[in-house]
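This section describes the prediction task in plain terms. A model, or a person checking by hand, is given the sequence of a single protein chain and must write out its three-dimensional structure as a string of tokens. No templates, partner chains or ligands are provided. The sample shown here is typical of the held-out split.
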Amino acid sequence: MSTDQPTGTIRATFAVYDWPNNVCGPASWAERLLPGLQEHGLEVSCLALCWGESGPLVSNLRRAGVPVSDTICVGTSEDRVRWILGEVGRLKPHVFVPNLVVPAMYASRWIRESGISTVGVLHSDDPFYQGVLDVFGAGKRHDALSAFASVSEELHRQAQRRISRESESICIPCGVPIPPEMPKRSGDFQFGYVGRLSEVQKRISDVTRVMCRTVREVESTSGYIFGDGPDRKNVEHILASEGAGLPVSLIGRVGPDEIQSHLQQMDAILLLSDYEGLPIALMEAMACGVVPVVCSMKSGIPELVRHGETGWIVNDRGESVVEAIRTLRDDKSLRTRLSRNARELIRHKFSHDVSVEGWERLLLRLASRSRVGRLQIPSKVTLPPVHPALAAEDQRERQVPLHSALLRALGDTVRRVLPGVRKSDFTSTNEQ
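The expected answer:
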């Protein structure tokens, strides 16, 4: 079998999800990383699985010059695996990055067998990513990915404890651009939220309510909400009732290339989620010198926010948020120190350049091990059992249990020789 060893340009193919009005950290991560790797001389391509239709990630990647093949998520997981295998067979990358895309991780079994290294990306520590580690890190040997890239040290430690010897774990933080330092404007103290408008994880109603309460109780403050998502109507309802007449504004979705110009006008940013990985919106704000006000969370937050040094940690989503904003508004020297420290932390450890260089080193190392041969697309795609944490993105072909299939075959045979026998006599209760 002929093989393609990486003697020249390294080829890497990434898988992503996209949908209309896609506002999420992994999308911002891909939108910046892939063009950045191209600028470093790698040949990068993208496979996009789209829910409903393609969204801003696909269009922005294409605008940046990244080749994108996209498909609508119809049919079954097996159909998506076949499409991915066909595209990877056509592109022949040295490294395939299934990222967080479930069918792409399933397809990685055959991709790895063809000599191509595979990399999953852990963006958070919620149940979905624990399911990813269960199946593709600690599961059957043939389902294991070559490597897991975690966006925070805590996620990296979790992966190291879980994965088998078939895989390796590495930490590569997400990175954000570092804009020129701008003088802070005078006037009202401005604070904001940037991200998905969702109750799940983000607690967006709590964020909106505490914004309204804060501007009501703390003079000379104003709040701004940037983003879109499934629970936008909840935000609009709260602003129309509790926020009527108050200086709290819903701005809506702002693209990654524009958000930092807005953030440079902010003094503080709120993040009151139940959990996070390494939140890109928070890093974007800190890169602009915006002081983070966050709930205490594990995973990546402690790597970004140290109370009283690079930001402010609150104990609840009510009174302590109001007091934090009051303190930052009143103590300009404290605000200036936290702002400077936040910006310097991002510049040294979490910049776009740091992230791109980390990924470049990983892809080059994995490509040196790759021996790209012919990718065999199986006539029957057999997948592991559906993991409960991955089920929402894993629509399977209807599987008839073996005993049911045997009973059905026996019934067909008997009916041919004994007319009048009912089909139900040979149908399992599971099928009725």
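For orientation: Residues 400-432 have pLDDT under 50 and may be disordered.
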